[in-house]
Structures are given as C-alpha cells and as structure tokens.
C-alpha cells in the first residue's frame, strides 16, 4: 500500500523546456497511466533497500499491454520488463514512466528497449533528479524520433496534477538527497489523545493499536535506517525490525552521548540486523570495546548532534531515515532542521499526568505564533487510531543550481563540471557509479572445474568466492544461494551474514586471496563492456577513491584513512590496460560476456 508523502507547489523539474506544448487529446488517460506507473514503482518497498523507484506501463488503444517495476538496482529494468510482457503489442504503443529512465551505466538498456520494441511515444512523470542523468534519456529518445512528453513541461493541464504528485511522492527520498544533500528524514511517534507517549512511570506498551504497529513495521521496511536515543533503549529495549517477511532490514542506529546503555539489549544482537551506536568522542571506551565484541559498530563524533549524524548517513549513501526517538532527541532533530516529515499516530486514550512525557521536548517557543505548521496534511483512520501525516519541509525545488553540461560546454568547450584530480565513487546512481561492485554488469568466468559461469555482478562473484574451496562440504550450497541472489544487495547481505555466523564455511586463506578474487572479477567486467572500459580510461590522471565512510579496507573510510583497495585495484587495472596493447582485442572479443 503506497504511503502518502505529501506535495507542495513546485517549480517544474527541467533542464530545457521545449517551446511548444504537445497537443494530445486525452491527458486524463495519460494521468491515469502515469499514476499506475508510480504505484508499480512502489512495489519494491519493504523488500530491498530504498533506491530510485521506477515503474513502467505500456498502453495501446486505451488498453494496458505491458507493465513492470524495478525490484532493485542490478535487476531487470522496469522498461525492459514492460516491453517483454507487451511483446508485439508494443509496436506503435505509448510507454508511461514515473521517472525518466536512469541508465546510469552507459548501456542505455531501458531506452534501447523502447526503441527496439517500436514504441512511438513516451510520457515521463518527472525528469531524473540526479544532475548527471537529468534529460539524457529524454534527449536520446527524441533524437531517435520518439515523441516524449514530460508532465509539467509538455503537458500542463489540471488533470495531471495528481499524477505529478504521485511521481514526486514515490521518489521523495531521492529528490531530497539530490537537492538538499541529506537523507529524507521522517519522525514517527504514537501518542494518546492528551499528547502523551508514555505514563509518568515511563510505561508505554501499547499506546497505539496492532494495526498502527503494523504500519510502523512498513515504515521501517521503507527506510535505510531507524534511529532511537539511549533513553528508548534503556526503557523499551526495542528490536526495531520490520517484521514483514521481506528481505530488506534497515540499519538500527542508537544515538547516545554518554553511552549509559545496558549491557543486555535486543539491539546488541546483530545476527540478523546490524546496529550502529553513534556517540561523543571518548565516551566510555570500555563499553565501546564491549559493543565491538558483540559486532556492533561504534562511530564517534567530536560533538554528537542530529545534523552531523545525518550528514554522516548521507555519506554512507542512505536515502531514507526513520526517527523513532523520545521527546528530547526529536526536539533536537527538529531544531537542527533535519526532519522533513511527521507521522503521528493518535490513539483514543487519555492517561494524564503532568510528568508524563510528550513526543517533542523543549523547542524554545513561547507563543503559538512560533508553532511549526505541517503542510499538505493528510488523515487516515487505522483501526481505532488516527494517523496524521504532514511535511515540515516541502519536497525540494529541483531547478539546477549549477549550469548543465550542455550550458557549460557552450561557455567553454574545454570545461566540464565533473573534472577533478580525485574521482569519488560509491553508489551505483553516482556519476561514476559503474565502478561499484553493485553495478548491473554480469560477468562470466570459469569455475574450479573450468566451466564458465555467469554471475549477475562483481558483488555476487566476490561474496560467493568466500566459500569456494572451503574445507566444509556444506559450503557449496551457500555458493549456489549467493549465485541465485536477485540483486547485488541481497548477495552482499547473504555473504556477510554467512561469514559472520559460520566462519568455518569461509575458505582458510580468504584474507590472503580476496584482493586477487576481486581483481579477477574487475578485469573481466571492464574487459567485457567497452563503454565501461572507456569510462575507466577517461579517468587517467585522476585518483580513484571508493567513498565508503565505513569500509576501511575497500573504501576510503570516514576521514580518508581507509585503505581504498577497490580504488587501488581499479587504478592498477587502468594502468594495465594502458600498457597492454592486446587489451583492445580482449575488449572486442569480450570476457565470455553473458
């Protein structure tokens, strides 16, 4: 069930507005199909970590002939699925996408599928919010002779307002991240009718109904991370799991300045779900060691505050954060300006008590005129409760703040806004996202018996090979399970979990050979795909850094103190290609490409 996220007056998301508005007789039907595409794109929520949400509907003569949605980065694009399901009916049909195709890996798979299928018109909900992708697919489709209409630009009738809203809502996390350089943050709480989140004793189970708690599980499943304060850990001992049966488990984060936390807590059990504790530098070193022994990650800040924490989570690539904290931390988060939306579950109960806590602590306001007002408020009855939702900050205006690539080149052809002596890469949607192990580029390499096997990504290959050659005869079943993982994210979660829970399954000399395994996979990947090889060779003269703030082996680490082995291997590969006259033939032949 899609979650309403709200909407406010928007400036059209655009690079270049066409001088004429397309004449089309049935924009109401266009709106219906675009809304359907947005609904489809939401289907992956709760089953994979939040990512750009793509849905596609193909219609012809008033009937839907094909549909699809992106399950996760690295899986079959929504556009390809829709074309495959539509078959011959796609010829002369119209394709509807909630967001401009994001072919961020240089192969234009989604766009090509439309062209090859004979689609004649494409209706786009919003342009891609990322600067290096915005407008590229639209321009390519128009160059190929397809009619492309963008809501708010080429279609500006009142009938498309709800459809445009749906497109913005379903990708709100990406829009916030792109425009504001912060993750989308939602504050959630449950309170009684008289505004209490617990009794004076601190007892809080349960304020809201079972139906409301199920909705909270869904909210967690749509988030990259769930944040609580130390007081919540001490009093409630939460698990912070979605409990929905899906594959995605959000990171659990505890904010505590003093680390005055119990030694026994559900959150310290990281066998299924990881936990991070963020604290002030130097706090209870002995307890930090205790947490580390449990497998809990501890991150120190010079001064612990919500703004620095969300900046750090932005660097980790998170799109969406759910705050389930008490009044003190929620007030600090609101005051820091990091909360974008509020979900308040109001139960028809009265508990009273002047010392009973409220959902938001002191904000320093003394007059009602200072009160923060939510915008685009919605109301929904859930069992006996009422869910009140609204925005503290509107969905951002995505008018570019820097010149587009075309505009920059027009000023000075020798300039590029992306040139830098250091090139950072991390998430697959970044400009150099194809350098990531999670990019959707299958590789084909021989196994132990010399038979060639296709792996969906470098990450699939790397995670599985932790268990190849293991002395434990049961390890082969884990190799096959990782090989069959639907996405690179799932392969990574599976491999890390097995390694953590069953270290005896890992090959004995893994630490000595893991860089060789990675290099072998990278060489195959960049030899198999000419456009990736060209991208790698275009970085000559630049230092490549995998910008993970938490991976100190493969990445650059939080403050640049990481070993950056992934960046090093890519630079080594680049150097090998530069000095190898035969690599061009290797590329043209492919590395047994799938």
TrEMBL record:
Q: Which Gene3D superfamilies does the UniProt record give?
A: Cytidine Deaminase, domain 2, Dihydrofolate Reductase, subunit A, YbiA-like
The lineage's top-level taxon is Eukaryota
Q: CDD domains under this entry?
A: NADAR (cd15457), Riboflavin_deaminase-reductase (cd01284)
Pathway-wise, it operates in: Cofactor biosynthesis; riboflavin biosynthesis; 5-amino-6-(D-ribitylamino)uracil from GTP: step 3/4
Q: Does the keyword NADP apply?
A: yes
One of its Pfam families is NADAR
PANTHER family per UniProt: 2,5-DIAMINO-6-RIBOSYLAMINO-4(3H)-PYRIMIDINONE 5'-PHOSPHATE REDUCTASE, DIHYDROFOLATE REDUCTASE FAMILY PROTEIN (AFU_ORTHOLOGUE AFUA_8G06820)
Q: What is this protein called?
A: 5-amino-6-(5-phosphoribosylamino)uracil reductase
Recite the lineage of the species: Eukaryota, Viridiplantae, Streptophyta, Embryophyta, Tracheophyta
């Amino acid at each position: 069930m899609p979650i309403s996220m709200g909407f406010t007056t928007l400036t059209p998301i655009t690079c270049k507005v066409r001088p004429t508005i397309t004449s089309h007789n049935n924009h109401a039907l266009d709106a219906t199909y675009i809304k359907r595409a947005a609904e489809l794109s939401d289907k992956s929520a709760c089953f994979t970590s939040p990512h750009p949400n793509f849905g596609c509907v193909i219609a012809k003569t008033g009937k839907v002939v094909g549909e699809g949605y992106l399950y996760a980065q690295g899986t079959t694009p929504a556009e390809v699925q829709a074309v495959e399901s539509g078959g011959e009916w796609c010829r002369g049909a119209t394709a509807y996408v909630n967001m401009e195709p994001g072919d961020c890996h240089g192969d234009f798979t989604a766009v090509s599928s439309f062209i090859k299928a004979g689609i004649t018109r494409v209706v786009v909900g919003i342009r891609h919010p990322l600067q290096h992708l915005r407008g590229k697919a639209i321009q390519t489709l128009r160059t190929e002779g397809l009619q492309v209409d963008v809501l708010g630009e080429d279609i500006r009738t009142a009938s498309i307002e709800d459809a445009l809203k749906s497109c913005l809502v379903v990708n709100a996390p990406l829009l916030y991240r792109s425009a504001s350089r912060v993750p989308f943050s939602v504050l959630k709480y449950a309170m009684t009718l008289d505004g209490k989140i617990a009794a004076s004793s601190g007892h809080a189970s349960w304020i809201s109904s079972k139906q409301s708690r199920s909705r909270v599980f869904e909210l967690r499943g749509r988030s990259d991370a769930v944040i609580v304060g130390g007081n919540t850990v001490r009093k409630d001992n939460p698990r912070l799991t979605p409990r929905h049966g899906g594959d995605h488990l959000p990171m659990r984060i505890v904010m505590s300045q003093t680390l005055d936390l119990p030694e026994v807590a559900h959150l310290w059990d990281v066998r299924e779900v990881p936990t991070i504790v963020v604290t002030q530098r130097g706090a209870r070193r002995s307890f930090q060691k205790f947490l580390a022994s449990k497998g809990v990650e501890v991150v120190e800040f010079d001064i612990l505050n919500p703004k620095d924490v969300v900046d750090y989570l932005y660097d980790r690539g998170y799109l969406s954060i759910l705050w389930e904290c008490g009044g003190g931390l929620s007030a600090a988060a609101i005051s820091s300006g990091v909360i974008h939306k509020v979900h308040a579950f109001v139960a028809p109960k009265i508990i009273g008590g002047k010392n009973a806590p409220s959902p938001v602590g002191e904000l320093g306001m003394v007059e009602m005129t200072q009160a923060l007002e939510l915008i685009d408020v919605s109301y929904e009855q859930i069992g006996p409760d009422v869910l009140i939702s609204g925005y503290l900050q509107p969905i951002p205006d995505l008018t570019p703040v820097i010149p587009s690539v075309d505009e920059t080149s027009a000023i000075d052809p020798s300039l590029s806004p992306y040139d830098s002596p250091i090139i950072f890469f991390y998430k697959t949607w970044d400009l150099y996202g194809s350098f990531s192990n999670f990019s959707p580029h299958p590789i084909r390499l021989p196994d132990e018996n010399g038979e060639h096997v296709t792996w969906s990504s470098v990450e699939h290959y790397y995670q599985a090979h932790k268990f190849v050659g293991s002395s434990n005869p049961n390890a082969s079943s884990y190799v096959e399970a990782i090989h069959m993982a639907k996405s690179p994210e799932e392969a990574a979660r599976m491999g890390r979990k097995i390694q953590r829970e069953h270290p005896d399954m890992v090959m004995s000399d893994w630490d000595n050979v893991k860089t060789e395994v990675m290099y072998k996979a990278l060489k195959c990947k960049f030899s198999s795909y000419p456009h990736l090889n060209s991208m790698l060779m275009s970085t000559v003269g630049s230092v490549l850094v995998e910008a993970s703030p938490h991976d100190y082996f493969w990445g650059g680490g939080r403050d640049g103190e990481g070993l950056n082995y992934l960046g090093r291997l890519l630079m080594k590969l680049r150097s090998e290609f530069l000095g190898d006259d035969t690599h061009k033939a290797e590329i043209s032949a492919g590395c047994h490409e799938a």
